[in-house]
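Re: that chain you flagged

S.,

Sorry for the slow reply, it's been a week of failed gels. I finally had a moment to sit down with the sequence you sent. For the record, here it is as I used it:
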Amino acid sequence: MKIYNTLTRKKEEFVPIREGEVSIYVCGPTVYNFFHIGNARPFVVFDTLRKYMEYSGYKVKFVQNFTDVDDKIINRAREEGITAPEVSEKYIGEYYKDAAALNVKKADVHPRVSEHIQEIIDFVQTLCDKGYAYEADGDVYFSTRKFPEYGKLSKQNIDDLESGARIAVGEVKQDPLDFALWKARKTEDEIAWESPWGMGRPGWHIECSAMSKKHLGDTIDIHAGGQDLQFPHHENEIAQSECCNGVPFAHYWMHNGYITIDNEKMSKSKGNFFTVRDILKEYSGEVMRFFLLSGHYRSPINFSDALMEQAKNGLSRMANCKENLTYLTTAGAEGPMTEAEKEQLKGYDTFRAAFVKAMDDDLNTADAISAVFELVTAANTAVKDGATREFAKASLDTLMEFADVLGLLQVEEDSAIDEEIQKLVDERQEARKAKNFARADEIRDLLKEKGITLKDTPQGVQIIKE
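Prediction finished late last night. Pasting the structure tokens below so you have them in one place:
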């Protein structure tokens, strides 16, 4: 597999640190609100990376944190009149609900900042002991200029950064480029812990470095997140981690592109700010996931009603194929596959090769989805009424092999047909037997309005919910 490494700005062959194993750290949400469509993209993209790595035979350890100590959380707690931990607990629960709707699998570890305070303090102390950090009035800062490679991820020139940097009123750092590792408590209602520098809390950047070190080690295979995190967050992670540990922090850096809303930047002031919870009122989580995977993860992607409708139609095409194949696994002909079917099944290897080639090319899910559609077309043509159950099952297994990697077609539709619908279906069958085709057509149209399509097959009527 080749991965575009942000650190080197080129595609590189993926070679894991330990053969057959992959360690992945993805920056997770700051839990003070429902997450929005822009947050959803890295969650879905790197969940798909994980699934593909597992499909490829790797043993994956996947870590995605919760930032539950942050200014935004403190401010939300003040607004709602509750504690910061209560805010975090509430929105961690809401994260899991929306992530499940998107078919995002839980990480192997979901570390929380609040549960790693000692590790963070030890990390900061090591940087102080090595001369890379200093204390000033209870704050602790990282000395950015002491890391000669600063800027290597974002390709920022330290002299250019200096020209735009300022020391804000009240800050006591020695250099405008230095960043906080530990923040002294400023007010009594701030969440804080005892430390060698007094009561305080971690800075944002140090949190991920400490949690990654604890759960994955000093050097990891892949660190991933949104493009907006390249600088300063990931740049600062590299600086403090490599100074603390004395080894490279991550071998591969992956960043997904931005999402625009109707070709404009998402903004609350413009009224085009959409949480996943908002969008779920109009579209299923699987439609949203299909949409997020329909473009290459590094490219910008535009969110609009028209594109969501395209995603809905594309997913429906896959789902209809799955439903038809599932039906024929029980309603198809008994007995072994015919020789012709065996040959058709071998032909599916072409689609599998195209799928793998796309995913191996820097997780090109757009082309992988195209390979799935080619399979769908072939299966719809090959698996018709009269096909063997065995062939239908083998076709279904191939479709779900690809869909499982993409995290699609995972939601089982409710197959129960209510009594009113079943009565109409039975009445239509009686009308057909009596050659009362006008009434049969009338019932078919009535069912269509209710989102039910009937397909007449030699094995009986197939009832399809739209």
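What I noticed first: The chain has a mean pLDDT of 92.

Talk soon,
D.
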